[in-house]
């Protein structure tokens, strides 16, 4: 362990690491482990989809409706049926809309700000709206909350989901706490999957705000690396839990096919309680006549149903598994005797969460950039980009081909070691 | 003219019209002249577009970018170039977003409500927001204003556009008047095209509200029935006019390919001054990573450029001209000796505006429905659905095949005559 080294040994080690790092820089790499993008090989899996809607006959929905023309606000029945698979819900509670679940979430919160819900004051009329943010978390969630002027409150993400003791205590007496971000399965970036107990506590907890909302971003609900878990082991459905707890309007569920078919050209959808759905559709009906039904048809014909989705995701998993296993192996091999570091070994999703020794994350990301490896910015996994321990780094291993990922991880590991060694030396001066 | 008939003659006429109407009802028709939808024959024109993006090679943008993956917030450069044709602007001022220009307008107004602009208070924080609505106008524009709680003020639409004396007087001293809906070319439903003088006055008029916005919905900018007018005769560009008037932020331009390729599966876009664009993109960047670039590619490859768009729209016009000419001929032949009615003869767009004798519009639409012909609801062309004269009816002749349109117009004309004759008789009792 570096921390246990005599200072002279640490100095020698640092000098060697500086040389290694210099050699890496000299290679002039240009590699990227920053964003959770599918690899080109994964995108190829969905190419047949694009040929499924090409003549006037193939533009007809099951009902015979011509999908090339106006109409159908909340999605074709067959598209709702498909997206219900991703949302773990019934088609009747699904709205299919556009290509981005992020936009659906943004719009849902904008409506709560501007119009309020169920007789409660619009949030834009309140002095303050507070929002719970499990950390480490998803930077684009935090960006939405920041854009809407919410005061973000970090809550630790444990192995079972958000620290529910903390959450319960924050929501109980403070009416200005209006909601929480949740990625219940294979959370971004840690890969954490919420326990049943966590889901039940979220559904049943006493909230001062009657318009408290759980934004249930099930972005990775079918993104298993090791086969779909049995029905019993899936994340407990927040909808059923909220219904049982007699808090039926507390949740809004979101999902998309961005990492199933094509990011930016997939289907996004939400599911909610009937009362929330009515409200959402009423507002949506002012904003649009309907979403892209041709793209809905493409997806329905290509993915078909739960079985089709599972088979397709298994093909993704075959491409992704070696990448995640490489990350786990490299980090274990290279860092287990360094100390001070820890990382997640997710069973699905798109990220690995890496915790560097305190005060090292920014330096590591900077060093990696110098050596031609782009990482997600340090701090990105925290509200306002401020990680108080300067420790967490999100590793996104999906985009680069395996040999590039291998090179990028070599650089990353070297940067972790060097930053940590320098830090230790500084602290002894 | 009906109004000149002796009462006994009017009674005989009414009895005959009742019999005609009864015979029409007995035919059990089911025809629709309600919404501005393209006919299936028009949709067929764009089918080749759907086959233009089918393999990984064809998913590459001009830059080489893989359009199947995340990225590009405001549109591919080539998509901006294409949509600039519809927006009569330069690509640098264009944002391509989603499939619905209605949504782009709604979102733009939502942002002004929630965030404000340029240091002005968010509109949601004001006691009142007033909005100018040229009448007759587009019901979905009015629905947006109503949803956002704006108080709508009708302004007469003259042959040259909105009554500018009225507009200028309304905006001069009242800071709560925040904007105006404009469909500058082939307005919905009258087909009116704004004169250069109207455009200049909109751009230069003195507004009490520094955040006054002209929502320039150029929905029918290329939808000519009789060939594209020469460059000189196009509607004057509101952007250039506002720039010259030193009111560069006053306008937001919108267009889509909904009635060019596929409604609901087309491209929507906006153009604005650089300061407004920066603001819009900043907000958009919180809501999405980017829109459907595969659909952008499809459109670019199919429509290509201004010449391609003009040729494609000429093909639409060949289908639409006989329908609009049938409407004009039928109304002229059947109603010129009835009196009390007037209607527009548009040179483009999707609608004919029909003014029935005062107090007759609702009855006409009801009678037509009884006889199996669905019209746009009476009053729909006015804010809150309230036409004070109960006179205006929007005729949408594009969707039905020619022979159905012919039948539907026979019914409509009969209903106009009967409603008018009944009304005259009632007034004499």
From TrEMBL, chains A, B:
The keyword Lipid biosynthesis appears for this protein: no
GO MF assignments: L-aspartate:2-oxoglutarate aminotransferase activity
InterPro entries in the cross-refs: AspAT_Ic, PyrdxlP-dep_Trfase, PyrdxlP-dep_Trfase_major, PyrdxlP-dep_Trfase_small
Alphabetical keyword list: Aminotransferase, Transferase
Domain of life: Bacteria
PANTHER family, alphabetized: AMINOTRANSFERASE, PUTATIVE-RELATED (PTHR43799), ASPARTATE AMINOTRANSFERASE (PTHR43799:SF1)
Name recorded for this polypeptide: Aminotransferase
């Amino acid at each position: 362990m570096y921390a246990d080294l005599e200072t002279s040994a640490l100095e020698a080690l640092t000098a060697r690491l500086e040389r290694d790092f210099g050699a890496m820089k000299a290679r002039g790499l240009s590699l990227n482990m920053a964003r959770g993008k599918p690899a080109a090989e994964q995108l190829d899996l969905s190419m047949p989809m694009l040929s499924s809607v090409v003549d006037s006959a193939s533009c007809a929905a099951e009902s015979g409706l011509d999908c090339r023309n106006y109409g159908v606000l909340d999605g074709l029945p067959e598209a709702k049926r498909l997206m219900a698979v991703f949302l773990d819900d019934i088609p009747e509670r699904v709205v299919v809309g556009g290509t981005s679940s992020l936009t659906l979430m943004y719009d849902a919160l904008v409506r709560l700000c501007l119009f309020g819900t169920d007789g409660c004051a619009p949030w834009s009329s309140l002095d303050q709206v507070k929002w719970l943010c499990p950390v480490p978390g998803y930077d684009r969630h935090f960006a939405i909350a920041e854009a809407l002027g919410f005061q973000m409150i970090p809550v630790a993400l444990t192995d079972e989901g958000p620290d529910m003791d903390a959450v319960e205590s924050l929501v109980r007496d403070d009416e200005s706490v209006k909601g929480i971000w949740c990625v219940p399965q294979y959370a971004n970036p840690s890969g954490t999957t919420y326990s049943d107990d966590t889901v039940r506590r979220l559904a049943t907890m006493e909230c001062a705000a009657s318009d408290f909302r759980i934004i249930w971003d099930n972005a990775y609900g079918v993104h298993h690396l090791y086969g779909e878990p049995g029905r019993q082991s899936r994340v407990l459905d927040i909808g059923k839990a909220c219904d049982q707890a007699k808090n039926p309007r507390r949740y809004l569920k979101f999902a998309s096919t961005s990492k199933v078919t094509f990011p930016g050209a997939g289907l996004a959808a939400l599911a909610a309680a009937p009362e929330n759905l009515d409200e959402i559709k009423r507002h949506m009906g002012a904003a649009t006549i309907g979403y892209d039904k041709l793209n809905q048809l493409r997806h329905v014909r290509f993915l078909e149903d739960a079985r089709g989705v599972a088979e397709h995701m298994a093909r993704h998993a075959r491409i992704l598994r070696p990448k995640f296993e490489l990350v786990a192996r490299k980090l274990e091999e290279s860092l287990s005797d360094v100390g001070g570091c820890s990382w997640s070994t997710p069973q699905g999703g798109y990220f690995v969460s890496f915790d560097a020794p305190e005060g090292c994350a920014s330096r590591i990301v900077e060093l990696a950039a110098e050596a031609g490896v782009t990482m997600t910015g340090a701090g990105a996994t925290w509200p306002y980009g401020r990680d108080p321990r300067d420790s967490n780094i999100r590793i996104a291993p999906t985009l680069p081909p395996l040999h590039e990922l291998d090179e990028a991880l070599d650089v990353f590991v070297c940067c972790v070691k060097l930053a940590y060694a320098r830090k230790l030396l500084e602290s002894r001066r």
